[in-house]
Amino acid sequence: MSLDNVFGQVPDPSAYSFPDYALPQGEPVRPVAVTAAELDSLLDLYERFAAVDPTGIDSNPFLRATSEFLEQTVGTTLERPDERLHDDIATMLSEFAEDLGSERLGVVDVTPAHFRTLYFFLTSCKAYHVAPHIQFSPDEGAVETLYTVFQRVVDQDVYRRSR
């Protein structure tokens, strides 16, 4: 499947809302099957994604110097807007890897926080891909794998309230 086809299936962030969950205590867990090959594909996609600099701070010394001056003068922190997402994705993939262990196929636990992270990872990959100044061209298979894992979580209605 081409990138345009996969990204065409991604829910639009302006119209998408996360579901309500019926379990009131803590975050419910959605077990989904993941293969080692799928996890490897997601890890490779994440490495390519994390290497992208959408702000230009890393590649533009003038912008970096201006930002650092602003940080020192005003006291604001210099943080790329995607750094928190990178941390969330890395944590999620680490937890998936721990759940999977060394098995070729296993069940990983997906909480609502992981569900949101999968969605934001998917939409951010799409945003990077369509932005002409970034030129992010991820592997089609890896993006399809990300979408497949996301869809496995979405397809489970166990924890949703009936509408």
Task: Annotate the secondary structure layout.
Blueprint: H1 3-8, E1 30-35, H2 36-50, H3 61-74, H4 83-100, E2 105-110, H5 112-130, H6 140-154
Antiparallel strand pairs: 1-2
Q: How does this model look, in words?
A:
It is a single chain. With 163 residues, the chain is mainly alpha-helical. It has a domain at 3-12 and 28-54 and 81-154. Helix content is 53%, strand content 7%. The protein has a two-stranded antiparallel sheet. α2 (36-50) crosses α6 and α5 (112-130) runs antiparallel to α6. The longest helix has 19 residues, at 112-130. The chain is globular. 19% of the residues are buried.
List segments where confidence is low: pLDDT < 50 over at least 5 consecutive residues: none
How confident overall, as mean pLDDT?
84
Strand content: 5-15%
| Cα Rg | 18 Å
Number-wise, the strands total 2
Span of the ends, CA to CA? 32 Å
Shape assignment: globular
Biggest pleated-sheet summary: 2 strands, antiparallel
Count of runs of 4 or more consecutive helical residues: 6
Which structural class do you get from the secondary structure elements?
Answer: mainly alpha
Following the backbone from N to C, one meets helices and strands in this order, namely: HEHHHEHH
Strand arrangement, major sheet: 1-2
What is the compact description of this entry?
This protein is mostly helical and 163 residues long.
